[in-house]
Amino acid sequence: MMIVSSPSMITRTGLRRPKTKISNRAWERKVNAISKTTTMRQSRANDDEESTQLMNRNPKNDSMIKAARGEVVDRTPVWLFRQAGRHLPEYQEYKKNRGKNFLQLLDDPEDVCEVTMQPVRRYKLDAAILFSDILVIAEAMNVAVEMPGGKGIVVPRPIETPKDLETKIPKTINVEEKLSHVLKSVRRINEQIEKEGLEIPLIGFSAAPFTLMYYMVGGSSRKNTDSGMKWLKNHPEASRELLGRLTTVVIDYLDLQIQNGAHMVQVFEAMCEHIEEKEFYEFALPEMEKIAKELKKRHPTVPLLGFARDAPYAIADLQRIGYDCITLDTVMDRTYARNTLAEAAGGKEKMSSVQGNFDPTLLIDGSFEDIEKEAKKMLEDFGPQKLIANLGAGLGGKEDCAKVDYFVNAIHRLSEEMITKK
Q1: Does residue 338 contact residue 374 with C-beta atoms inside 8 Å?
Q2: CB-based contact 325:355 (threshold 8 Å)
Q3: Three-class SS of residue 171?
Q4: Could you tell me the maximum CA-CA distance found in the chain, to the nearest angstrom?
Q5: Could you identify which of 129, 240, 270, 327 might form a hypothetical disulfide with 355, taking C-beta atoms 3.0 to 4.6 angstroms apart as the criterion?
Q6: Cα gap 132→404, rounded to integer Å
Q7: pLDDT of residue 50
Q8: Is 18 strand, coil or helix?
Q9: What tens digit of pLDDT does each residue of 16-67 get?
Q10: By C-alpha distance, which of 337, 332, 325 is closest to 359?
Q11: How far apart are the C-alpha atoms of 232 and 5, rounded to whole Å?
């Protein structure tokens, strides 16, 4: 900023200091205010320019997008939960060379981009998915998250009382500021997809509110699994307040992912194993509905995928509240799922698409013949249309890359044969 020292000086804002008496401090405040306004306007202009330059806006391979919308495809698209990360030798080598752990990789958009791209270079997948973690929102809301080796996700200082909620957790956050590195990663990944000529869409995602709350109040995948239910029962009003705050942030987070280039988004309610059905309908589902309705209002053509893991009773409700594609876990009976969704929608033509639900253990200890047989059965059970082929649980790290590759190619080959015959 130029120092004002003369009555006739013109600052870089283009403002001439008047000849009337005005203190140096008052004048500097006025110049600074105008300069700040000019900077903000320029920043918005730069943002607008950047948004018009998003890469990979209309990928040639749009079978994932079509399938999620229920449109006809030439072959069933496929991607995999946790396709990026620990099962890939190139990931292990990259992490070692970078000298970073999982959470540290998430902070750097260049690292996120590289790890996201690794599986789509190796396999003929129909989409990339943002390499991230379900608890980035919790971290952005002042809840520390750690991931010590072999212990899963750990929240060392959880919210213990409603007073903690009021004193430690903000009512809302500026997502664009707090999670700017994630949004930059989304843009960077699409740049790289286009640069490498892969022509596939990018999936964004967020944890759903109850899953976030579950971890924030001290739950984990391995211990304190009753923490979420205890909060819901002992502090129902504080639970609603926390869930409401989280819902607002989740909506903004997914909205901004879409604005920055995500072609479709998934909402993961991953901890339904640790919420009773009554409480799911009272606390969790209403928040998922708010998310679906608001995102559909803001982005009516962007496919919305919903996953309430370990809550098979909820699939028709997820369809009813606006999710275009319902994700199914490994325990879900496929025929039951299709029939339930079709009946609830008033016919197969109106039902949501489904996603799932291949057993990932076959990618560890199954033979190629086992994989072929089960892939074919899955396609026959679901039908090759209105289906996104995926796993019923994420890759855990011990999978054989050759078997993963075989599964992906088998889905394409078998579904194309089935669709051609019809």
Answers
A1: no
A2: yes
A3: coil
A4: 89
A5: 327
A6: 21
A7: 45
A8: coil
A9: 444 444 555 555 555 455 444 444 445 444 444 444 589 999 999 999 999 9
A10: 332
A11: 63
pLDDT means per 10 residues, the chain with 422 residues, are 38 44 52 47 45 87 98 98 97 96 95 98 98 96 85 87 96 97 98 98 98 94 90 98 98 98 98 97 98 98 97 97 97 94 96 97 98 98 98 96 98 97 82
Q: What is the pLDDT of residue 24?
A: 53
Are 259 and 204 in contact, with CB atoms under 8 Å apart? no
- In this prediction, residue 52 carries a pLDDT of 53
Q: Of 418, 419, 415, give the one whose Cα is nearest residue 126.
A: 415
Structure tokens at 175: 């997502």
pLDDT at 422: 75
pLDDT at 150: 65
DSSP assignment letter at 274: G
**What is this structure's pTM?**
0.87
CA atoms within 13 A on the CB side of 263: 27
Quick check: 405 and 122 in contact, CB under 8 A?
Answer: yes
Strand order of the sheet with strand 387-391? 128-129, 202-207, 264-269, 304-308, 325-327, 353-358, 387-391
Q: Residue 234, exposed/middle/buried by CB under 10 A (0-12, 13-18, 19+)?
A: exposed
Number of neighbours of residue 307 by Cβ within 10 angstroms: 25
Q: How far apart are CA 76 and CA 124, in angstroms?
A: 12
Distances (CA, A) of 324 to 27, 55, 241, 276, 318: 57, 25, 28, 25, 9
How long is the chain?
A: 422
Rounded to an integer, what distance in angstroms lies between the CA atom of residue 113 and that of residue 111? 5
- Residue 271 DSSP label: T
Look-up: residue for tokens 């299709």?
A: 338
- Tell me the two tokens of residue 173: 């956050």
Q: Give yes or no for a contact between 61 and 199, defined as CB atoms under 8 angstroms apart.
A: yes
- Return d(Cα 321, Cα 306) in angstroms, integer: 10
> The tokens of 56 are what?
């990979």
**Rounded Cα–Cα distance for residues 142 and 157 (Å):** 10
**φ/ψ (deg, to 5) at 267:** -105, 120
- Region for 225 from its dihedrals, namely left if φ exceeds 0, alpha if ψ lies in -120 to 50, beta otherwise: alpha
Residue type, 75: R
